[in-house]
Amino acid sequence: MHNLIWFYAAMTPSLDLENQVYIDRLCRLLEEDLDFHDQDSGYASHNIHSFPAKFPPQLPRKFIQALTLPGETVLDPMMGSGTTVLEAFLLGRRGIGFDIDPLAVMLAKAKVSPISHHDAVIWSREIISNARESFFSQKRVLYNEIDRMWDEETREFVDYWFSREVQLALTALVVEINRINDENLRNFFNVILSSIIITKSGGVSLALDLAHTRPHRVDRAIDWNGCPLEMDTSKRSERRKLSKKIRSPFEEFEKKCMQSLKNMSENGLNSDQLSMRCLPNWENARMQPDISMCNAKSLLLNDECVDIIITSPPYASHAIDYMRAHKFSLVWLGYAIRELSERRKRYIGGDALEGHGFESLPGYTSSIIDSLARRDPRKSLVLRRYYSEMKAILREMFRVLKKGRVAIVVVGESKLRGQDVEIDVCLSEIGESLGFFVPRIGVRRLDRNRRMMPVGNQVDMKSQIQRRMHKEFVIGFYKPPID
For the DNA methylase N-4/N-6 domain, which residue ranges apply (predicted)? Predict the structure, then answer.
């Protein structure tokens, strides 16, 4: 039995037949197998870029198909890699996606924006050819470009994590990508560039485990020609010695381009195929999603304009530190380390307390925070910030969701200082204090390799991270048809 039931009979709203049928359908969906371990999740453009803790596309697809009709609106206010928005797009719904992470916005746009397959192939060949030529014959020009790209702090970061040869190669690619006028094409190639940096282990930086947001700098490395690199060993780990062969940025870029374009073409995601789906008589006409940078605590949407919400908020206390990995790519796309550090403080689930106000929270949630305070007073304030932020987010979700519709929120179990913070119970309590009704909560077991959590498959009970990331709760927040 994979599912835990959350059911308050005394709080069940009085419903007409249509709304009762809707809730019954929702409950059946939450009772079904939500693991999807044996299913292919790499179709369309879902695998264009690594992203930690993204849920399988079958999860939003299941609820979109069962609870909405073609043409209705699907919202993900914390869209991450854009899985929900892409599924809405593929299913002929209007997708809306928001995030405050720059790479998330770029990635989601790349997944759903129409590009000409023919033009992309031509540009990819030109980018690689010209970049190689610059790398081998115009190194001085590239050095000058590097000197003007970053401030001192960002330059120190790049020098520590990227070998000099890789810096030259990536700079050559960036220069060529920036020549493209078409915004969708340029964004696509920027995402491809990012994808060869942020990988589990095989990227072009000197880091391992970037895709899990836990980067470790190697002690020894050889370049793609088999030559050893000179390494600064002043910060070498005494616990283990890490080594890596750095792959050619040009070969990795070309490989990733071709694979991504192939997947997108096979699933009707190039511009010529998409134009066919704009005809009025196309049964599931695909509508271009609306994707933008926006804080989920203050959505740029009208009241009651959304037919379903499907989202997965971040973990509390930076358990998955997105910016820690994303900055490796974003520094190549025009961002400075200081700016990214300031952005990180605003991310949901962060540890920073200054400038963050607290909401009043319901009784059981407050008792969980008070219990944690006896173990670690500061960590309890971090948890209070998290639940306060989630209250603000749920309030906005309630505002924009149509009556008689549902918000599906996928959250991972979480332990802080060894204490289960009962995230499913607390978020349900918070949601119900705002007017939602929670008829049921589904539970899904994580396939840890595919969910890309920042730990391995073997359970180490001494590891706090491992102890809090083995299952997720799928909470159904239903907005009653009456106030």
Answer: 47-108
What does the pLDDT look like over 146-198, one tens digit per residue?
999 999 999 999 999 999 999 999 999 999 999 999 999 999 999 999 999 99
Query: What's 87's domain CATH number?
Result: 3.40.50.150
Residues 189 and 228 in one domain: yes
Angle at 266 between CA 260 and CA 271, to 5 degrees: 80
Count CB atoms within 10 A of the CB of residue 470.
15
The mean pLDDT value of the chain amounts to 87
Can you give the residue range of the structural domain that contains 130?
Answer: 117-264
CA distance 341 to 186: 25
**382 in any annotated domain:** yes
Does residue 250 belong to any structural domain of this protein? yes
Q: Rounded to whole angstroms, how far apart are CA atoms 21 and 215?
A: 48
The rounded distance, in Å, linking the Cα atoms of 207 and 328 is 9
Q: At residue 11, does pLDDT exceed 60?
A: no
- Tell me the CA distances in angstroms from 406 to 36, 58, 205, 259, one per residue in order: 22, 18, 42, 36
Question: Who contacts 17 (Cβ-Cβ below 8 Å, separation ≥6)?
Answer: none
Kind plus residue range of the DSSP H or E element containing 94: strand 94-99
Pair 79, 197 in one domain:
no
Question: CA nearest 132: which of 171, 183, 83?
Answer: 171
Q: What is the pLDDT of residues 127-153, one digit of tens each?
A: 999 999 999 999 999 999 999 999 999
Please state the rounded mean pLDDT for residues 291-320: 93
Q: Are residues 256 and 352 located together in one domain of the fold?
A: no
Q: How confident is the model at residue 9 (pLDDT cuts 50, 70, 90)?
A: very low
Question: Can you give 107-173 as a three-state secondary structure string?
Answer: HHHHHHCCECHHHHHHHHHHHHHHHHHHHHHCHHHHHHHHHHHCCHHHHHHHHHHCCHHHHHHHHHH
- Give me the torsion for CA of 467, 469, 470, 474, rounded to 10°: 140
